Amino acid sequence: MSRPLPIRHLATIACAAVTALGLTGQAMAAPSATDRTTDRRALSHDTRFYVDPASKAAKQAVTDLREGRLTDALNMAKLASWPESFWLTEGTPDEVRRRVQGIMKAAKAAHAVPVLVLYNVPGRDCSFYSSGGAADAAAYDAWVQGVAQGIGNGKALTVVEPDGLALLPKDCGANADPTGTQTTERIASVRSAVETLAQRPATSVYIDAGSSNWQPVGTIAQRLLDAGLDQAQGFALNVSNYQPTDQLNRYGTWVSKCVRHATADDSGSTADRTAECANQYYSSAAPNDGQPGNAVSFEDTSTWRWTDAWYDENVGTPPAGELTHYVLDTSRNGLGAWTSPPGKYTDPEHWCNAPGRGVGPRPTADTGQPLADAYLYVKIIGESDGTCHRGTPGPGDPEYGGVEDPPAGAWWPDFAHTLARNAKPKLTFNW
């Protein structure tokens, strides 16, 4: 039998849960200095992000408290005190405009900056777990206009279309986009969204670029350039993924330097120059003679020195102000990525509800990294990635005892509790 918690601990949990739900006071944030900068779209180091007082974690804290799960309630209350993003995934232009206006109004009252994720591009996620999106490009453009109108002149950080460039229609299968028309339309839609949002005077725009375990550096750098990177504040990495922060910072720096390499002069096309960029899988600077350690391997980051060497030689060390910046999703990367036992599954689906993971570094715009503008909780911690079978017949997920994972985006209390319990660093209250 567990020992009852002292009364003062129960009071702490109850107070935290009630505060997180917004029943006492405003969301926990301090005024931002961003509006005092020359470029209101840029983030200052003391930017504070908006905490939703009605978040799913806050509601779960109250549920756990009422059901007597005191440790879970405390963890959920701690989690609820930290800012997470708002995902915009559907609705008419008027509906999304009104929703964003409500978020902006609440954030302004709390002197904080909301993080808005646009996730409604046509044909998103190859029509897999997170399928959906606007009916067509015209409908999407009108919807994005609704988002921009909702933001108005207020300060917001936007992440444009998770996986939208890393998973283009042509990447969905051998015959998914035989003419290339859908891929061309996807890039045009993302570029249009960036252009629309960039017209807002205080909106920071970051284009999603997948994660460090996905597209090679040069490939994603070119896609970002095609999608209007020059009009954005930068790109976003690791959204809804699990890759470790130090790896992401290294990869993000390479992408930024590859963009610099491709755009430093007008000699040749940018596609030719991004194709030259060393990446997390290969570098021409390595001997590549078949000897151990003499070729770049994603699984062995000690070999990434060859990729570093390529950028040192071909790009050098330009000032941070001359390189493209990025933001990272650290919502679930505290323990890094999950690796299944060799040979256990035909398709481990490492990205899907990875077991035994934990919440990562807390959201902040003061990262200590010259190119990292912010660490953010972009993925809603505790929402499912989808129904995972890991190459087995199912019907459930073998990593969760055969239990069927909830659909993508559905709240999963057990998953939330695990991520919070395994947080690294350990969760604390944001006050």
What portion of residues belong to β-strands?
Answer: 5-15%
Strand order of the largest sheet: 1-2-3-4-5-6-7
Main sheet, how many strands, which sense, barrel? 7 strands, parallel
> Number of helical segments?
11
What's the N-to-C terminus distance? 33 Å
What do the pLDDT scores average to?
92
Estimated helix fraction:
25-40%
Evaluate the radius of gyration: 22 Å
Give, in order, the helices and strands.
HHHEHEHEHEHEHHHEEH
Structural class: alpha/beta
Unreliable sequence segments: 1-11, 23-37
| Spatial shape | globular
List how many beta strands DSSP finds. 7
Description:
β2 (115-118), α5 and β3 (156-160) form a beta-alpha-beta unit. By secondary structure, the protein is an alpha/beta fold. The protein has helices at residues 7-20, 56-66, 70-80, 93-109, 137-151, 181-198, 217-226, 245-263, 270-274, 305-314, 413-421; strands spanning 86-88, 115-118, 156-160, 203-208, 234-237, 325-329, 372-376. α1 runs antiparallel to α2, α5 (137-151) packs parallel to α6 and α8 (245-263) packs parallel to α10 (305-314). The protein has a seven-stranded parallel sheet. The chain has eleven helices and seven strands.
Task: Give the secondary structure arrangement, pairings included.
Layout: H1 7-20, H2 56-66, H3 70-80, E1 86-88, H4 93-109, E2 115-118, H5 137-151, E3 156-160, H6 181-198, E4 203-208, H7 217-226, E5 234-237, H8 245-263, H9 270-274, H10 305-314, E6 325-329, E7 372-376, H11 413-421
Parallel strand pairs: 1-2, 2-3, 3-4, 4-5, 5-6, 6-7
